[in-house]
Write a structure and sequence with these properties.
By secondary structure, the protein is an alpha/beta fold. The strands form nine sheets. It has a seven-stranded parallel β-sheet with strand order 14-15-13-16-17-12-18, with helices on both faces. β3 (32-36) and β4 (42-51) form a beta hairpin.
Length: 815
C-alpha cells in the first residue's frame, strides 16, 4: 500500500510513501502523517490518496507515524486544493500551509525536555535509543527533534520520544502528535456538607472571617441567578478576593473548585430573536433570487448602500438551514466580521461560528474541530474561512464581492476567494450569492450583460432612507481663496461643527496612514528613502519615526539632513495622523478617534472602537478604508473625503473603477437612518466623469464608460491576465532572467498578448529587484494551454543553473 502525501514545501505535486503493515487498516485520505522529507527533516503531511502502484524509478520511504484516528481534511477540501493549485499555478504545499492552522503542522523544530521532578519507573524497559535520549536530556535543558536525529536513526526518533512520553518523564514544548491543547479553566461551586451545615449555619461560621463571608455569600447569590458554571476568576474579581481565601473555604468544605474544558472562542448564548420582516422591495429581491437560483447556480445581488442586503442574506440563510443545509458567509475584511457576526448571532445564536487570522493558533484549531464535528450551521469569515471543513453547504454568500482584499496578495497561492467559492460550490452542489452596491465590472459583465450569472437589482434604500446629499469641493479654488483649514475646507469644517452640535457623528476618510508620506529637508529637498525599497519613508508623528509601509523598516526622525546637515524639515502629503491632528486643533472640545492599522493592532481593538462609536463616545472618526466597508453606524451623519481623486492616479487599469467603488461605499456610511446624510468630496478634478458618476451614485454610467474602454483595449472582462514577477537581490540577475523568460514566451505569443519585461512602480522591494511580465489571454486562446506554456518555458529556463537563482511569482487574474 502506498500513499500520496501533501507536504508543506514549495514544490509541485504530492510525494509517495509506503504504508507499514500495522497501519494499513487505520489509514484514510485526509489524515495527517509524520514523514521524512529531504535530509533528515520531519514534516507533518496530509494523505491525499491511497493506491497500490509501486514507483519503479526510486526507493520509497515508509511513513513514520499516523497522527489522527479520523480524517482532519475532507475529500472535497483536497479536491479544492488540487483545483486551486492547478488554476492559480501554485504548489499543493502552499495550499496546505495556507489552509490548516499552524498548530496542525509541527515539524522537526519541535523540542523535548525533561519533566520537572519526574522519575523513571523502576520497571521501565527502554531500548538503547530511548536511553540515549534520556541521558542527553539530563545534560541539556531541551533538544529539538532535528538535533535528536543526529544521534538516533530518524525513523526511531518519534518512537523513542513517544516511549518516554508514555512513561511521563519528558514533555514536548510543541507536541508533534497532539500540538493542540484544550483550554482548561477553574470553576467554583457551593459544596456544603449538609450533614454538618445548613447554608445559614455555614454563613454563621464565617462571620469572623469577613472576606470569606463576602466571597461565600457572593457565590451563593451568583448560583441563584444562573444555572451556568461560575468561573473562579470572576468570583475573585467581584469580591476583590484571592486564592488563599478560596483555599480556606475549600478546607472548611464549603466550596469546591473544579476544572472544565472551555471554548477559546466564545459563542454568545444571549436571547435569540426572530428575523425581522422584509420590506416589499427586499421581499421582491429575495423572490427574484430564489427564482434565479432555479436556472443559475450563481446570482449577483446588486443592491444600493443601505438597501438592507444583510437582512435578505439572513432570510436566505434561515431558508437554507431549514432545508438541512449549511451556509458559508465570506467577507473581504476581518473588520466587517465584528459587526456582522453580532447581527447574525442575534438571530442564529451559537449556530454561527466565526473564523479569521486574528484568532491565535489554538482558537483556530478549536473552530476547525467544531466545524468538522458539525457544530455550526453558519461560518462567517474572510477568505481563509473557505478552507474550513464545513459539510453539507447549501449556500455560499460572498458579501462586498468587489473588494480587492478578497484576493490573497501577500503569500502564495494568490487566490481570489470569490472565484474559489464559485468553484467550491460547483464541487459540492451549492448555490453562490454575490452581493455588492458597487459590483466588480467582471462580475457585473458576467451577470447583467453576458447572462452567465443571475442578476437581481435592489434600488430602494431600506425604511425610506433618503440618499445622502453629495457636495463637491474644488480644492484648487478653496486654496486660491484661502478657504482651507489645514486639509479641511471651510464647507466641510462648517458641516462637521453643525453635525456634532446636533449630537451626530462625522467620518473623515483618508486612505493613507501615518502623518505624511514624505519628510523633506527645506534646504536641499532631500527625502529619506527606505534602504530596502524604492520608496520614501513615511513620517509617523506619534512615535517620531520614519517607517516603510512595505518592508516594515523604521528609523528615528533625523535631527540633521544627511545630505546638507540642515536642521529644518517639512512634510509632503497627508496621512490619517495629520488629519487627526488637524481636526483636534480645529475642534478641541470634540472627541476625535483614528481608525487605521496603527491604532487597531491589538486583538479586539476594532471591536472596542465599534462599540465606542455605537455608544457615541466618539464625535469624529478619522479612518482608512477599514472603516468604510459595509459597516452600519446609526448616528453617522456627515462624511468627508480628504482627497477624492488620489486613487485615480495609480498606474493601474482598474484605477477609475476602484475610485468609483471607494467613493460610493464611503458615501453609503452617511445618514443610514431617517435624517439625510451629508457627503463632501474634496478634489482637484471636480469635472472628472468618475467623480461626477460617484457624486450621483450612477453605476451604469461608470460601467458603460469603462467597459467600452476595456473592450477597445481587450482588458478584463474581455480577456484574462497572468502577471509574472521575477525578483532577486541582484538587479542584473532579475533583469536577465526576466528577459530570457520573455524571449522564450515571445516565440509562442503575439505582441498583443505579451507585455514587458518592465520595472514595476516600485522596482526594489524588501531588498529584491523586480521585473514583471504581463500576459493577456484573449478569448480565442485556451487558458490551460497558456498556463502550460508558461510552466514549460520556466522549466526549460531552469535547466540552466543561473536562472534558478531568481524567484518567480505567478499571479493568475491579478487585481
Amino acid at each position: 500500500m502506498f500513499v500520496e502525501v501533501i507536504i508543506p514545501v514549495p514544490l509541485p505535486g504530492t510525494f509517495t510513501y509506503s504504508v507499514p503493515d500495522h497501519l494499513r487498516s487505520r489509514i484514510n485520505p485526509g489524515m495527517r502523517v509524520a514523514v521524512e522529507f529531504g535530509r533528515r527533516k520531519i514534516y507533518t503531511g496530509i494523505i491525499a490518496e491511497i493506491h497500490f502502484n509501486k514507483p519503479e524509478a526510486y526507493k520509497v520511504r515508509d511513513i513514520y507515524e499516523l497522527l489522527d484516528s479520523k480524517p482532519l481534511v475532507l475529500d472535497f477540501q483536497i479536491q479544492l486544493w488540487k483545483w486551486m493549485a492547478n488554476y492559480y499555478m501554485a504548489n499543493l504545499g502552499d495550499l496546505y500551509k495556507n489552509a490548516l492552522p499552524a498548530a496542525f503542522k509541527p515539524e522537526s523544530n519541535t523540542y523535548v525536555r525533561l519533566k520537572k521532578d519526574a522519575e523513571l519507573p523502576t520497571d521501565a524497559e527502554l531500548d538503547e535509543n530511548a536511553q540515549l535520549l534520556l541521558e542527553t536530556l539530563h545534560n541539556r535543558s531541551s533538544v529539538s527533534l532535528q538535533e535528536i536525529s543526529a544521534f538516533i536513526p530518524l525513523k526511531k526518533v518519534i518512537t523513542s520520544v513517544k516511549a518516554l512520553l508514555d512513561l511521563g518523564v519528558i514533555e514536548l514544548e510543541e507536541k508533534l502528535i497532539k500540538k493542540y491543547k484544550p483550554k482548561i479553566e477553574n470553576y467554583i461551586r457551593v459544596s456544603v456538607d449538609k450533614a454538618s451545615y445548613t447554608l445559614l449555619q455555614a454563613l454563621e461560621s464565617l462571620k469572623n472571617a469577613s472576606k470569606q463571608y463576602e466571597t461565600f455569600l457572593t457565590l451563593i447569590s451568583e448560583e441563584s441567578l444562573s444555572d451556568k458554571p461560575i468561573l473562579l476568576s470572576s468570583i475573585i474579581k467581584k469580591t476583590d478576593s484571592n486564592y488563599a481565601v478560596i483555599r480556606s473555604l475549600e478546607k472548611k468544605k464549603l466550596v469546591e473548585v473544579y476544572q472544565l474544558k472551555t471554548d477559546r472562542v466564545a459563542n454568545d448564548s444571549e436571547e435569540i430573536f426572530a428575523l425581522q420582516e422584509l420590506s416589499p422591495a427586499q421581499s421582491l429581491a429575495k423572490k427574484e433570487i430564489d427564482s434565479a437560483f432555479v436556472d443559475k447556480n450563481i446570482v449577483l445581488l446588486h443592491g444600493v448602500t443601505s438597501s438592507g442586503k444583510t437582512e435578505i442574506y439572513m432570510h436566505l440563510m434561515q431558508q437554507v438551514i431549514d432545508s438541512g443545509k449549511k451556509v458559508l458567509f465570506i467577507l473581504p475584511e476581518i473588520s466587517l466580521t465584528t459587526q456582522l457576526t453580532a447581527r447574525i448571532r442575534k438571530f442564529f445564536g451559537g449556530r454561527a461560528g466565526i473564523y479569521h487570522s486574528k484568532f491565535n493558533n489554538q482558537e483556530r484549531v478549536e473552530i476547525w474541530m467544531k466545524t468538522l464535528q458539525n457544530e455550526y450551521d453558519i461560518i462567517i469569515g474572510p477568505r481563509s474561512a473557505i478552507f474550513l471543513p464545513l459539510q453539507d453547504v447549501g449556500l455560499i454568500i460572498v458579501d462586498e464581492e468587489h473588494e480587492t482584499s478578497l484576493k490573497q496578495s501577500d503569500s502564495r497561492p494568490y487566490f481570489h476567494a470569490r472565484d474559489t467559492a464559485i468553484y467550491l460550490a460547483t464541487l459540492i452542489g451549492a448555490k453562490v450569492l454575490l452581493g455588492s452596491a458597487t459590483p466588480s465590472l467582471d462580475t457585473y459583465y458576467s451577470a447583467k450583460i453576458a447572462g452567465k450569472f443571475g442578476y437581481v437589482e435592489l434600488t430602494e434604500k431600506f425604511g425610506g432612507i433618503i440618499p445622502p446629499e453629495v457636495h463637491l469641493i474644488d480644492l484648487r479654488d478653496s486654496m486660491k481663496r484661502k478657504r482651507m483649514n489645514g486639509h479641511i475646507a471651510d464647507a466641510l469644517k462648517d458641516s462637521i461643527q453643525s453635525t456634532v452640535e446636533k449630537g451626530k457623528q462625522v467620518l473623515i476618510f483618508q486612505n493613507r496612514r501615518g502623518f505624511a508620506p514624505v519628510l523633506e529637508c527645506i534646504d536641499c529637498a532631500h527625502a529619506p528613502m527606505c534602504p530596502n525599497c524604492d520608496v520614501t519613508l513615511t513620517f509617523h508623528l506619534k512615535t517620531n519615526q520614519l517607517q516603510c509601509h512595505y518592508c516594515g523598516h523604521n528609523q528615528a526622525k533625523p535631527i540633521r539632513c544627511p545630505q546638507c546637515s540642515g536642521s529644518a524639515f517639512d512634510t509632503k502629503g497627508v496621512g490619517t495622523e495629520q488629519v487627526e491632528q488637524n481636526l483636534q486643533n480645529l475642534f478641541p472640545d470634540y472627541s476625535v478617534a483614528r481608525v487605521d492599522t496603527d491604532t487597531m493592532r491589538r486583538k479586539n481593538a476594532f471591536h472596542k472602537m465599534l462599540q465606542a462609536i455605537e455608544k457615541k463616545e466618539v464625535d469624529i472618526i478619522v479612518g482608512t478604508q477599514m472603516i468604510t466597508k459595509g459597516l452600519d453606524f446609526e448616528h453617522m451623519q456627515t462624511i468627508g473625503v480628504i482627497r477624492a481623486d488620489s486613487l485615480m492616479n495609480i498606474p493601474e487599469f482598474r484605477a477609475h473603477e476602484y475610485t468609483f467603488q471607494r467613493l460610493v461605499q464611503v458615501s453609503g456610511r452617511a445618514g443610514r437612518r431617517q435624517e439625510q446624510g451629508q457627503v463632501y468630496f474634496q478634489t482637484f478634478q471636480v469635472d472628472h466623469p468618475i467623480i461626477q458618476a460617484a457624486k450621483n451614485s450612477d453605476y451604469s454610467l461608470m460601467a458603460n464608460t469603462i467597459l467600452a474602454e476595456r473592450k477597445e483595449t481587450s482588458f478584463p472582462p474581455f480577456s484574462r491576465l497572468i502577471h509574472i514577477l521575477i525578483s532577486h537581490t541582484r538587479d542584473e540577475v532579475a533583469q536577465k532572467t526576466a528577459f530570457v523568460l520573455h524571449n522564450l514566451l515571445a516565440g509562442h505569443l503575439t505582441a498583443q498578448m505579451l507585455f514587458g519585461p518592465d520595472k514595476p512602480y516600485i522596482h526594489k522591494l524588501n531588498n529584491r529587484y523586480r521585473y514583471h511580465i504581463l500576459i493577456k489571454i484573449l478569448p480565442e486562446y485556451s487558458n490551460a494551454k497558456i498556463k502550460k506554456l508558461i510552466q514549460d518555458k520556466i522549466a526549460e529556463m531552469h535547466q540552466h543553473t543561473f536562472y534558478r537563482k531568481a524567484l518567480i511569482d505567478i499571479d493568475v487574474d491579478p487585481v
